[in-house]
Amino acid sequence: MDIYVKNMVCPRCISAVEGILKRQDLPYESVDLGHIVLKSILNEEQSQSLDQELLSAGFVRIDDRKKQLTEQIKNIIVKIVHGQEEDKEKLSERLRQELQLDYKHLSTVFSEVTGQTIEKFYIQHRIERVKELISYDELSLKEIAFQMGYSSEAYLSNQFKKITGLTPSQFKSSIQRKSLDQI
């Protein structure tokens, strides 16, 4: 049985959901960002109990197909941006291949559900990742631009300022980050 879950944005979220499933004594095949595969179908009592425990941990089960698809898109973007998977191809092609749906359809559904484009969501996540890398103070801006796939340090700086209202150096002085589930 497939279950889609909102707000799973990191490996700790996967661990938290695995813990919930173990406490609920629900055998599962796999848990990935936003997706659980259970070994059996839940009865009504199990379903309600799982929903309550997920909610208490900050997660929400998604039943609507469009919302499930949107969450899948978000999770692919999170994996790409936060370095869990390589980003060797265009985002539109990656989404099309992984979800086996036309990008125009994916884009329409995503915009309908979230009120923003896939590209804007992707840029916001890239900028949040850049903020994280800046706050670590281990890489130069040029190295961050290269690591994040920007064509130049200047392009990254311009996009950063457009999104945050600050230059990267101004940000470094004030460090302000959002949690990933708030994006």
TrEMBL record:
GO molecular function: DNA-binding transcription factor activity; sequence-specific DNA binding
Keywords: DNA-binding, Transcription, Transcription regulation
Keyword Transcription regulation: yes
Positions of the HTH araC/xylS-type domain: 75-174
Gene3D superfamilies registered for this protein in UniProt: Homeodomain-like
Keyword Electron transport: no
Stored InterPro entries: Homeodomain-like_sf, HTH_AraC, HTH_AraC-typ_CS
Pfam families per record: HTH_18
Protein name: Transcriptional regulator, AraC family
Organism, scientific name: Leadbetterella byssophila (strain DSM 17132 / JCM 16389 / KACC 11308 / NBRC 106382 / 4M15)
